[in-house]
Predict the structure of Orotidine 5'-phosphate decarboxylase.
Amino acid sequence: MTQHGPVCVGIDPHPGLLTQWGLADDVEGLRRFSLGVVEALGGRVAAIKPQSAFFERHGSRGIAVLEEVLALARAAGTLSVLDVKRGDIGSTMAGYADAYLRDGAPLAADAVTLSPYLGFESLRPALDAARASGRGVFVLALTSNPEGAEVQHAFGVEGSVAGQMVAGAREENAAADGPLGSVGLVVGATIGAAVRDLNLDLAAVRGPLLAPGVGAQGAGAAELAEVFGDARGQVLASTSRGVLRAGPDAAALRGALAQAVDQARAALAG
Ligand SMILES: O=c1ccn([C@@H]2O[C@H](COP(=O)(O)O)[C@@H](O)[C@H]2O)c(=O)[nH]1
């Protein structure tokens, strides 16, 4: 984030984007699109975030392309956040942890997104695997979609659901070395005043805050500044279609990235 700017580019090969890039909606189109993004932006961006759904829809050959994308990013020295939003009972989470957070696993990424709605502690196998292998996780706290509020803003005996995710991540990072620990949260850039309304202290998490919703979902500099307040130094703003629509030309993709970085830096400075 310091070197390349606080922006993560999502690799979301929507059928419509494949068409726009002059590609077929098949495995070869998926491969050319996804590898094209990594070739254009690898080594120039803080992180890439492949969206697993758009690879899974092509079956086992799509997953093989995802493996290639992760390997190419690794070779380029670019961090990968695999957006899989996994969550299950602990014994099954151990399987997911082994799939994504183990050295040498075919789908190993630098970080994954996790869904904590079976309880924060159900994520334990992934939290432990990430710590053991020097990787990270991003736990969904306040997602960018409007429907998320009905669950995430709800209050129980221990406060709001989102607040429990903030507390869980803060505890995980308490003993971390360095300025930021490796347990991050997903906090959408589109959520407006929710952090203030729910009285959440995101800065105290001492972890990175992945902020999807920039670009196609409508958030920009003003929204980033509004949502994150004094936690803005922890924010990794995430945009997929906002950059991908500039392709397939590599220079145009880099131009769109540069614009997104300028915008995020201006919004999150200070
Ligand atoms: O709260 C969330 C969590 C994840 N996402 C994912 O990010 C991208 C957004 O794509 P855009 O084209 O920039 O809208 C997508 O993969 C989502 O699944 C999110 O949007 N919100």
